[in-house]
Amino acid sequence: MSLTQLYCREITDANGALTDFILDYPYDFNFGYDVVDLQAKTEPDKRALVWCNVEGEEHIFTFSDIKKYSNKMANVFLSNGIKKGSRVMLVLKRHYEYWFAVIALHKIGALAIPASHMLTVNDFSYRISTAKVDAVIVTPHDEVPEKIKEAVSQNNLNIKLWCIKEDTTGFENLSKQTDEAGDELKRIPTLASDPMLMYFTSGTTGYPKGVIHNYTYPLAHIITARYWQQTENNGLHFTVAETGWAKASWGKLYGQWLTGCAVMVYDFDNFEPRQLSNVINKYGVTSFCAPPTVYRYLVRKGIPEMPSLKHATTAGEMLSPDVFRKFFEATGLTLAEGYGQTETTLLIANFKGVKATEGSIGIPSPLYNIELHKKDGKKALPGEIGEVVIVPKKNAPRIGIFSAYLDNEKQYELVWRDGVYHTGDAAYINEEGRFCFHGRFDDIIKTGGFRVGPYEVENVLIEHPAVAECSVIGVPDTLRGQAIKAVVVLDRGYVPSGKLEKDIKEFCNKKLAEYKWIRLVEFVKEMPKTISGKIVKPALRG
Q1: What pLDDT does 532 receive?
Q2: What is the enclosing helix (H) or strand (E) of 41?
Q3: pTM of this structure
Q4: Is the dihedral of CA 525, 528, 531, 534 positive or negative?
Q5: Is 368 helix (H, G, I), strand (E, B) or coil?
Q6: In this structure, what are the phi and psi dihedrals at residue 365, rounded to the nearest 5 degrees?
Q7: Positive or negative, the Cα torsion across 516, 165, 149, 107?
Q8: Got the DSSP string for 4-43?
Q9: Lowest CB count within 10 Å: 42, 130, 291, 324, which one?
Q10: What pLDDT sits at residue 98?
């Protein structure tokens, strides 16, 4: 059963393309109760989550299972003082416990804050203190417990710490407590307008910002799943993303379950193309979504036959025409690009019923009025580059668009200036009427499927004694999309050399999460700057 008809009305043309999308949901809509528990009631044995890992362990969870374990975990939280309005950070990689925990938090009205295990102690410290979290739930792997304990200690905080699967010093065993908890849970009142989920942005001109979404956020992902990823009722969708990133919400939970499609999760650390195709074939995955980096590796290593796969989508960075063509030649599937932000859901995409074309991110979602504006606020003409902006529909709620930046009303007002939402992204409309991505206005780097704000890397780079001034940019890279490059002005007494370049990279990369590693260093005598003294990154890229 697909629950979409309960909460929306979809109007399509003769080709099945979506032309209009009208949401109708209760004032107290809560994904935990109104999707998970409802599916558990109507089809208790329907697959929800198919999970496996590198070691060969496998679990298949029904909606009845998800209801039971999320209720049990919710009772653990409630008995430990976690309640409506509490803030809980989740650092759970691709472990199946993430799905129990996030649904449990939704049910009790707590704010879930997913985070990547790849973050450093300083990354965690900043996020924990800024968000004023009440609890952290972690994986026992990758030294995450040690990093969290140090981050908590740095801030001298007294917060609840849980670890799953294992007994870990300084943490309570959440898995053990969940097993012992009751599975009955009375509905806790929440509103559709309440805060539900928060992701930190990558940070561009400053430190990462907390992006808050309310309980209507999952409903906007109906379009993401059904019309972009083309999920099917009783199908199996596989999005590669780790749960610490917003892309997991796009492809590993909300839209998929609303459309009656199960989610495939492969719990791995090191990417190996052959492993992904083996999972697709073993479990009969019907739709797949990954950043262009994954497809580049697949093309490079040789794309195996994947007979169950019907649809393939990509987002997160620019897709090269060569990969687009070679993937189609090998599979007969057209890679459908999509575009959106942490602050939004899917804005523009190559949707069902509209043939995906090489080099285009597609057409706007019917849920939004998308325009391209020039610097003077006027609409860009076809072929002209403009900023992607969202013009709110009259008398309509802002579904799928974030409701606030954490404790930063000034920044929220800035991105909503002049009555429109400014994405900071540049695009143009080609002769076919399709949107084509041009680049970032805010210099964010997209590398290997991850978004990296230069500011965080520069803060580490400037700590090296030889670095007097620096700037970090993204440069084209055949495997990663972009590689992180440091442009450095040396302090007095230092001269450029290969040895110094190596030393700077090693110094920084020991302090940075792997996806933020500096790959290239260029020494320059001076930086190109504006009159006000700001470094001109486009000049460095040029």
Answers
A1: 45
A2: helix 38-42
A3: 0.88
A4: negative
A5: coil
A6: -70, 140
A7: positive
A8: HHHHEEEEE-TTS-EEEEEE---TT--HIIIIIIHHHHH-
A9: 42
A10: 98
Q: What fold is seen in the domain 445-541?
A: GMP Synthetase; Chain A, domain 3 (3.30.300)
Residue that the structure tokens 């109104």 belong to: 34
- pLDDT > 80? residue 203: no
286-328 per-position pLDDT tens digit: 999 998 888 988 887 889 899 999 999 999 877 888 889 999 9
Label residue 533 exposed, middle or buried (CB < 10 Å: 0-12, 13-18, 19+): exposed
Residue 463: count other Cβ atoms within 10 Å of its Cβ. 11
Neighbouring C-beta atoms of residue 257, cutoff 10 Å: 29
DSSP string computed for 422-440: EEEEEEEE-TTS-EEEEEE
What token pair was written down for 513? 């999460």
Radius of gyration of the chain (CA): 23
CATH superfamily entry for domain 30-215: ANL, N-terminal domain (3.40.50.12780)
Instruction: Please report which residue ranges of 87-161 form alpha helices under DSSP H.
Output: 97-108, 121-131, 144-154
Q: Where are the domains of the chain?
A: 30-215, 445-541
Q: What is the pLDDT of residues 425-477, one digit of tens each?
A: 888 999 999 999 887 777 778 898 887 878 779 878 988 999 988 999 999 99
Pairing relation of β-strands 404-405 and 481-490? unpaired
Instruction: Report the b/e string of 402-418 with b at 16+ CB within 10 A.
Output: bbbbbeeeeebeebeee
Share of the chain above pLDDT 90, in %: 79
pLDDT by residue (tens digit) across 110-123? 999 999 999 999 99
**Residue 531: what pLDDT?**
47
| Token reading at 121 | 């102690």
∠ Cα 187 191 193 (to 5°): 150
pLDDT digits (tens, 9 = 90+) for 382-415: 999 899 999 998 888 889 999 999 999 999 999 9
pLDDT score of 94:
98
Distance separating alpha carbons of residues 489 and 410, to the nearest angstrom: 33
Question: Which residue is it, tokens 């298949």?
Answer: 60
Distance between CA atoms of residues 533 and 542, nearest Å: 19
Q: List Cα–Cα distances, 512 to 91, 149, 457, 459, in angstroms.
A: 17, 18, 7, 10
Owner of token pair 């009142």: 189
- Can you tell me the mean pLDDT for 230-246? 96
H or E element that contains 457: helix 454-461
DSSP 140: S
Position 206 scores a pLDDT of 63
Indicate the length of the chain as a whole number: 542
Residue 223 confidence (pLDDT) above 60: yes
Identical fold for domains 30-215 and 445-541, yes or no, is no
Buried b (16+ CB within 10 A) or exposed e, 137-147: bbbbbeebbeb
Rounded Cα gap, residues 416 and 443, in angstroms: 19
Report the alpha-carbon distance of residue 152 to residue 159 in Å, rounded.
Answer: 8
